[in-house]
Design brief:
The protein contains 12 helices and 18 strands. A 7-stranded antiparallel sheet has the order 17-14-12-13-11-10-18, sandwiched between helices. Strands 5-6-7-8-9 form a 5-stranded antiparallel sheet, covered by helices on one side. The protein has a 4-stranded antiparallel sheet with strand order 1-2-3-4, with helices on both faces. Helix 5 packs antiparallel against helix 7. The protein is elongated, with a radius of gyration of 33 Å.
Amino acid sequence: MKLSLGTLKMIVDDLKTKIINNYISNVSIIGNHDFLFSFSKYREKRLFVSLSHQSPFLCLVSNNMSFPTTLGRLNDNIRKEIKDSLITDISILAEDRIVAFQITKTNDLYEKISKTLIFELIPTKPNLLVVDDKGKNIFVLHEMSLEKSRPLMRGISYEPPLKKGEFKTLINDESISDYESMAEDKLKESRHKQIKDRFAILFHHLKSRSKSLAKKEIVLNSEMKDAEKDLCFLEHGNMLLALSDNIESINLYVKANNLSYDSKLSVGINANHYFKKYKKAKRTIQMNHSEIIKAQEEMARLEALIGQSQYMNENELYELALSEMPHEFSSSNHKKTKDKASIAYVIYDNSKIYFGKNDKQNECITFKLAHPSDWFFHIKDYPGSHVVIANENPSESQILLAGEMCLVLSNKITAEVQYAQIKDVKKTSKVGQVILQKQHLLIIRNVQEETLKLLDNSYRMVI
């Protein structure tokens, strides 16, 4: 949704009534071009400014989501120039999509310094600038050299861009409401991307580790096939011993089977040479078979983590990162947020469908939250999430949805899903692991787009 001049005027008028005479108490930088401003007195909402290339905008958004700032030089410079500044006025410049915040900031000498915080919300050329009381740029987010028709650099006077064409000035209340809703969605997207960026190294680790194990399995299988060819050496060794009284027969057998045979050594020593090859091949097969099983189990675990991690919140990702990459995430650069523990669920056909994203959550959903008549779902013979329909008589579509959720959360497309009533699900000694006394099977060969959308927009219940 593009920002019209008319919409912007209404937003600015609204801002004037709410945040003038407020201090900018905090600035959170989300990624490279999104900013979130908090205020000293007006705390019902925050100001979200997006300088995205295609659709820049600003709008008040709810104050119910934590946003740690992106660290770096940009964060330091922005905070230095505008944090703790008093907003004295807000206006639109040049009848264009340019919003100017008049601010006053006290310096280290307790002198009040006047500045102007400017947001140029112009598609393809958005910008953030701070201008001093003499009209000179003291900070420019996207600088432009003197070679450009409109240079933007520190130390030169600020000039608004030339306006191209006219913009609509009329807007109705419904459009404003839609615009605020769009801003909330955009904020969630920005937060989601910020989390993904923070844990990019974790996602890369899980995927690369899984790929490495897949390659290892191929190598082990190849070694096993070669070793299986050497199992015939047991028969060769036995035949040499059986023919030990007939040198001529030994020579014929060796020649027919293209075997090496040292006539200077005894038949027993030659036979023992082949027995050793057989034993080595047998050990290789046994060891590789064991290693393949371990690799397959670890790949299954990693694939389940990859599926579950796509729907984890920041705390859940942090806990996963600590367990998978403790040396990387135990440092002070990565800290747990203050969000309370929660359980995720979707609502479908008026029923809640809960899903776990780790062993503790699985245990909680199945044995604390669910009722005996509710229904339990889990992908068969594969690690993954517990999914519970809070309904004793689920519909076929609800059953299918729960089964598909199991697949998505294990990063699979097709599989068998087992399901049973909670009263038929029993604990084991291992957290999150269960035994089904009775069960039904559901074969799923694809996942509907609706299932993915429901998971993307899941709800959370604090526990």
